[in-house]
Amino acid sequence: MKASASEVPGFPCPQCGNRVHIDLGEFLRTSEVTCSYCLLRLSIDRKASDGFAARMQSPPIMRGGKDR
Fold first, then answer.
1. Pair 55, 34: CB distance under 8 Å
2. Of 19, 14, 11, which is closest to residue 40 (Cα–Cα)?
3. Cα 10 from Cα 23, distance rounded (Å)
4. Burial state string for 3-37 with b = 16 or more CB within 10 A and e = fewer than 16
5. pTM of the predicted model, to two decimals?
6. Beta-bridge partner residues of 11
7. Which residues on adjacent β-strands are paired with residue 19?
8. In 1-68, which ranges are E strands?
9. Nearest-angstrom CA–CA distance, 56 and 68
10. Within 10 Å of residue 52's Cβ, how many Cβ atoms?
11. Which residues are 21's β-sheet partners?
12. What would the pLDDT profile of 4-43 be if each residue is shown by its tens digit?
């Protein structure tokens, strides 16, 4: 299933199954997001995620993306 460009990023809540909508910039800045249905707070391990965040901030050509 392919997401449309206008779809808000998110994922299913592991507790209630409803969609947790995220603002990627805010999520990376604060390291957490809250499910608006069951109020489960989810956070990321910054130390483990630093490499991924750095790669995502580099231009696609440097990540090995399609524009290569």
1. no
2. 14
3. 8
4. eeeeeeebeebeeeeeebebeeeebbeeeebebee
5. 0.57
6. 20
7. 12
8. 10-12, 19-21, 32-34, 41-43
9. 15
10. 11
11. 10
12. 556 788 999 999 999 999 988 888 788 899 999 999 999 8
Q: Which two three-digit tokens encode residue 2?
A: 């392919």
Burial of 61 (0-12, 13-18, 19+ CB in 10 A): exposed
Query: Running DSSP on this structure, what letter comes out for residue 13?
Result: -
Q: Which two tokens stand for residue 65?
A: 């993306």
Q: What is the largest distance, in Å, between two alpha-carbon atoms of the chain?
A: 42
Q: What is the pLDDT of residue 65?
A: 53
- Residue 24 φ then ψ, to 5°: -55, -45
d(Cα 37, Cα 14) in Å, to the nearest integer? 12
